[in-house]
């Protein structure tokens, strides 16, 4: 796919998002761009905050989104320049647009005195003015769907007061380059003597054709300064870089920095890194680490960030302490060919201060594979005279939908899009948000896609381990119903009430309140998911109920006595949900009449569960049949030495062997158990 084709596809995706979700064009573009940059340099996605105004010197003010980076103590502001033509954006235009965000920062007092208190711009200005965020750096991002006249990637560093401002420009060509490989990195070289004159001892430990391992001891001051310069770029491969890091471990690290810096080496597990290449200087006798290309901290983000925070802490004045700290550093020099698999395994297996769950590496979690399979096999009813049903496409891996069509002929592309309409596509971040909302966690859904997804995966991993069979076709249909209800509610907020701000938060709180009220007041009743699935829409009674409830949710979020001035930040607080949850609310009679017995829902689920078990057992028997006879005999020989399998498990392996020796095939349940035994043996080191 070339740049022109990518631009057409990108604009098409934006239009589909606007149509499918009801968000503005700017919001859809920012969400798409933000999603791409999450794997590149953002710690979390931008919060949509569309604000325009005039400053006290008649300057134009603009803000389309913001995100505060807890790891880097940076406030990132987003601006969108979305055009409906192919005009080139000039350097002069870029400078004019990015200044609108700078003027926003300069005119905070003016905004607080003149803007509507309900506007997103007012809430953010209030928080910045009152030091709600510990801001050490501002980053202003300009995103445009057209090309720049020259390849400007960033403008000169600027300051507002004593806080630096970085400017970053992402045009469609740069986004295209990034999209070609979601793991694409912009190369950067680290010369360690630029950060400290202290030497870094480094020894070669192991080497091979595609891997070299080194052990080093990096001064804490170097590590802190590296992070404060490069920020999240150092953590692109760190599976935990988007998770909360302000836990007990951080406090322990900080206490060591303050009280016992000379014992930091003894107490800390150190950091695990990868690099494309390194330079070792041996001219002075002892090998010293001189430079590193594309350094990635794949384990040890807490250690790194804690040192960086401590260095920036002006009250404690800890620089001298950090000068006396040394951190163990393991470096793996990897090739392009094996980097993705190797980094994932390092992230999974390396020692760390917090356990890295399998859910952190979640795209390949079996839950998502199951949902993907169900989305390809569960046809929605044919409606409006159509002769075929459509499917709701679950995009487990980013870009999978576009990948299905970009090499296809015009005819096959149309056929695919007719079967899987663009407005019936959803991804794992959206899935997590829906489940959190309908499970009574609107404050988590409001916290942003990454935090919402992290919480969701923690819960879903536990549920999967308890019983994966409950994720069946009826479960998938309920997920789609969530999506249909969400879209209808979003449309009500946008077209009927025409609330200009906080739409996502209003929708989240509305739906959590609706389902919480049903659970409290009508314990044996449920929304009729079967009706919604069969008709692919909500009923008129539910529509009327949502019109009423969205207004109540809006008034709650913007109540002048709310616990936080910034409504976007207030919606992220559990206190916001608790107070709304406790608010008295009565469902209308027409809506209550449409509720169905929970027993009816349970019966549907039971039938679907039986079908799922049958399909799972059938799939297990087919998979078992594909495994070679030698695998089972080798497993038995291996187990004689390693003694991993229990006697019962060994008996089940014998059942697999009998497929070939006696032609006796295990049952479906036995096949499932045998495959799990093989998976466990592989995890314990069975080489096959």
Automatic annotation (TrEMBL):
Residues of the Abortive phage infection protein C-terminal domain: 235-559
Database matches in InterPro entries: AIPR_C, AIPR_N
Protein name: AIPR family protein
Pfam hit, one: AIPR_N
Superkingdom of the organism of origin: Bacteria
Domain Abortive infection phage resistance protein N-terminal: 29-176
